[in-house]
# Entry
Amino acid sequence: MIGAAMKRIVSIKELESLRERIRATRDPGRLRITICGDTGCRASGSIELAGALEKELTRRGLNNSVDLRISGCPGFCQKGPVMTVQPLRIFYRQVGRLDRQQDINDIIETTVIAREPVQRLLYEDPETGEKITDIKEIPLYRKQTRIVLKNTGEIDPDSIEEYIAADGYAALAKVLVTDPEEVIDWIKRSGLRGRGGAGFPTGLKWQFCREAKDRSMRYIICNADEGDPGAFMDRAVMEGDPQSVLEGMIIGAYAISRGICPAEGYIYVRAEYPMAVKTLRKAVEQARSYGFLGENILGTGFNFDIKVKEGAGAFVCGEETALMASIEGKRGMPRTRPPFPAQSGLWGKPTNINNVETWANVPRIINGGPDWYAAIGTEKSKGTKVFSLAGRIRNGGLIEVPMGTTLREIVFDIGGGVPGGKKIKAVQTGGPSGGCIPAELLDLPVDYERLAEAGSIMGSGGLIVMDEDTCMVDITRYFLEFTKSESCGKCNPCRLGIRQMHRILEDICAGRGKPGDIELLAELAGVIKKGSLCGLGQTAPNPVLTTIKYYRREYKEHILNGFCPAGRCQGLFRCEIDPALCKGCGICIKTCPAGAIAGEKKQAHVIDPEKCTGCGACYEKCTLHAVRKVRPTKIRSLETIQDSVPDSRLGLVR
Amino acid sequence: MPTITIDGKRIEAAPGATVLEAALGAGIYIPHLCHMPELEPYGGCRLCVVEIEGARGMPAACTTVVSDGMVIRNDAPSINHVRRVTTELLIADHDADCLSCSANQRCELQRVAAYLGVDRRRFRPGTRRAEKDSSSKFFERDPGKCILCMRCVRTCHEVQGVGAIDIVSRGYDSRVAAFWDIPMAESDCESCGMCVDACPTGALRPKDEVLPPTDYVQTVCPYCGCGCGLVLGTRSGKIVQVRGDKANAASRGRFCVKGRFGLQFVHSYERLTFPLVRRSGTLERASWDEALSLVVRRLADIKEMYGPDAIAGIASAKCTNEENYLFQKFMRACIGTNSIDHCARLCHASTVTGLTMAFGSAAMTNSIAELESADCILVTGSNTTEAHPVIALRLKAAVTKHGADLIVADPRRIPLVEFARLHLRHRPGTDVMLFNAMMNVIVSEGLHDREFIARRTEGFADAWEIIRCCTPEDASAVTGVPAAEIYSAARLFARADRAAIVYSMGITQHTTGTDNVLALANLAMLTGNVGRESTGIYPLRGQNNVQGACDMGALPNVLPGYQRLDDPAVREKFSAAWGCSLPGEPGLTALEIFHAVEEGRIRGLYVMGENPALSDPNITRTRRALEKLEFLVVQDIFLTETAQYADVVLPGASFAEKDGTFTNTERRVQRVRRVLPTLGEAKEDMQIICEISNLMGYPMNYPGPDAVMNEIAHLTPIYGGVLYLRLNGTGLQWPCPDGTHPGTPYLHREEFTRGRGKFHPVAYREAAEQPDEEFPLLLSTGRMLHQFHTGTLTRKVAGLEALSFPGLVEVNPEDARELNIFDSEKVVVESRRGAVEVRALVTDRVPRGMIFMTFHFREAPANALTNDALDPIAKIPEFKVCAVRLRRV
# Structure
């Protein structure tokens, strides 16, 4: 590697010649096997697979004819471990999941030696059964436009030279000889909006920060506190293409501070991402040794450096003011704005804060030109957006699509639809405080405005697909469980209001709902949205509001009839056996904890409704789908719904 | 002035004010719970949300700064709906039994709920874990009533600079707790009680406040010289509540644990309620007639047999100005002696001599409030956070809010060091060397204020002759402070635009006390830091009225207002006013009085409210003198260690039982008001003095203390305009020469009191007693937070007593290792004058070779060890340095 003996690059010309040299050392015909080493695939054994493969290659004396490397996440997490073989354009999924040694032997014999695909390991279209060799032809990838994820899964994240070979730091080179104001203008013209969720125009944000009155210091922060448990696009970028984030930040620092004052960078990354932390630290170190960070960057006299700061596990620290408080060593609690960070941010100095995906977009925009970028997407939302597809979906993983792509395209064309022949019920976007969009609205083009109109948010970019078995009340309760415990505790509507909503939902799910609860929930949600201090509280009621809006009937069934139509809420349904389908196998009899099922062998069984507790165990076990969930026979009378306020806590308020 | 409109009403707002401040200022109520004027805006309770034209959503009024033309909607249904639901949420989660809550009727949550109207039954009730924390000696925390407004937490952080509590956990589980969730009593809490006052509900409740008061009286704290304003709530003749007086200019409603929780001594069963007379060796109950006639007869006898100078008087820094004035008037006019002194001799005599020589006036040059805007503050020989806690708040605020550089020059690692940029740990007694070296750096580097020196001062050249030889390198060898630190300190101090010097006993209680003060005065003048706001010298006075007692002439060499005895015109004025001839010879100072007793020159002594048997250095000698006295009369509220030697004990009145004035350390004359009737047969001290005087044939009759103040004002130019009518607000800072003068926040503005400021050449001298082979350690003494002086008052308060272990000696870990002493082990400290048994506290608060004791405890009197060597000019004894040895029991 050239890197080991690398000196600082002291001019733009030197960078270009280095790029040429790296590219020249590559043999385009040489086999490159890339195994995803990111969390999903790693969990299914990709690192062990890589080790075993290397050992086998060495044993057979083939190790010098193949480049084997570990990459970041190419996105197809559901089918991990995944592997690509270039230049043969072969994509293998679930390698080594059943028989690692067999898979390795086949790959070596068929692919490495004979240069043919192993049919067994190829992706199979679930609809047509057709085998697909090229990753680009897989539905998950076919409809994607990979800008941010261009390198992710392609290059070795630990090698800055691979990044340079893939046009890395070309954008910085271009920027360093451009007027900072013009750079801001480019970003403004590109229409890039903050990918952290709120969608504030990035160029304008930079301009505000550049124009701030205090001319002593500028802080450039990368918000890498990806707190939504269902989202992992930022992690994938940090672990797969960390240099692009750094390059974006250096460009931002140049545009915001050059000619005004010194600038300093921080990446605030959650400590729950140890790999991202490690990769970023290594990337910063490499960038520094190559002269992209530190004093006199590329010989242009511009100075900028970046510190990596680990968070301490609070969701609210993704909120920018809380994040800055946390960097300062205080408890991560948001404060009111104004003053905005652009005027008074970290340590009271003007600060520009963007998230990982936003920063990673920046070099691409500079390289492709603002007009190219602005041509992608919708009128008000430009470019692409990365989503983490999860839930009841065939091809879960990480995808990047142009803004304006409809939910239907995302779920069905890219995600492959809902498995198990179930019907899609809803799509939840934006993380725990996003809204649930019903199946009827699947043709909604996804951009900031349209999502907001539907009552949801772009938010983190998490996208969860729910099928007919999902109880919307229960899932709302589940989301609130998260926001309830992640509220920072500073402001009352958020701290107490979310918990109050959660308790009402708990009651409803347990059959203790009261008439008026839906209205109370809606009222509370409205107050929390209006009254809360920061984005956490202002968006946390979204799941409540959207589910009430689109699934009010389901709430009513719970409260008035004690029935959970999705058959999720325990005790709120009864199981019944369809005599036409039951073959009398007896599994349900063994399963039922209440001893409510009886029947002769090979005769249709019967469930005693008096004994059935509605746990649903028989439903889960019945392979013939003979068990149905139906309304409980006993309709709860309103008198039995007691006011749950114990007398002892009733006091007088005067 | 920006004009804003709230609900159609146009109001003027101060620039930079928040919408909430502007509204409240204009009498418009916006509901709020987390707002407190003295704290930074928080925006947490979300009850002050409003709508502002052109702004998105509902911003909080407390965090939104006004701008001209702002149009605000406040009392509108849509806004009140949001507020009401928020309040309902709070109340659903609140252990609300208002009728049995101690905060009933003063609860701010009640007020908000009443304003908005709430329905308690709509929401599910709270499920919080709500265990009371009753571990603190003084207050109780009930989390069930906590609304997490953070006022207590923010007060502890922002105002007190302690940070004992914070919010822990997250989300619904968030709650206020001490670090590691330990009980309050084990936390860093100083028990100042500011959090209790800040609490809008009943979540924090003082333990001793069972029933609310029926009456409230504004008065002044009886402890240290800060002069904090108190509002005492009384009921059925008891003080049942203590609150800070927010209108008080010195303290702004703040106080420390002693002022807040240490006033119950007034109700102590040990209070003296009738006179005592010694009959056949024991003190027995007597009638006032018997006691007073005995006093009068014995004093008259002594005067007749040995002359007036055989009688001496010790006045009291705890009594009012009026009482001290009458006391010295009695001694001078009725007895006919100038041998009158008080405890100022033991604390700031060297300040009086030193600053008078340098500036012409010995008082603190500037005001307490100005400290907050100083750019650099040198604190030396003052453990401010423990001895003057409320002034320490200004120092902390100067650092945390204003960004001032704090330099602490103190051998001990005192708590203030946490806030300091530099800590110079010089050897006790080497202060002059340290300051001379700092001045050496300043002049060598051209950082001195040449213009100020030339225009306003004299004698610089002489002083320079000494200073030029004191290089930081030489000083380093003597003081033990690295030369680099001396350089840094000098530069920090000299480069600051406004630099102030704060000092206390660590500077004054030396045989070189006057020199120390002169060196500091030189430093202030050298850098031009006198006569401007937020500069100057702050000698912190240790007792509530030590400044006043000096002002009133309870000193052997001056008459009231520092008018010189040796000035015939002055003597003539007083002779005429008092109708008597005045002795012209200066009298004896406090310690000289006791030394004169030994020689038989003093035979009778009248002690009012002082306790030399514990507070004097080398108390063995003092106690011998007390025994030797022919006649001792002690007037006090408790049977002090001194009173136990008396022939007659007269029961006086505490601060809560009389009217009058105290003068705090910043020269502020403030009103003390009667809160309670006198106890039993006890009388006001003023009345006792007058009765004795009348019986001795010198009539003193005043209808009340205001009449005494009128006489003081008439005779004392600096108090010329101090009249009771003018003292109802924030008091007056002297000099206040006439009835229209507004008082003087800082001195020496255009010129020094003596004309030009005078530099004095001061060379370093060693302390009188140095460690040697026999006594290898150096002992220094001082105060602690929870006790005061000889404990006469504080040790009667159970809570304070529980917080302070009597008799600890701080020993450096390395010394402890060498001496084979373990923490908490019993040890004996011995000096040439005595021995004391105490327990060792092994801590690096003290440097090697030095040990430290407080002087509060009669069980372990540090003053049995201290040296009674005197400063040659000020006659102040050297409490701060003596040679001792330490051994295990």
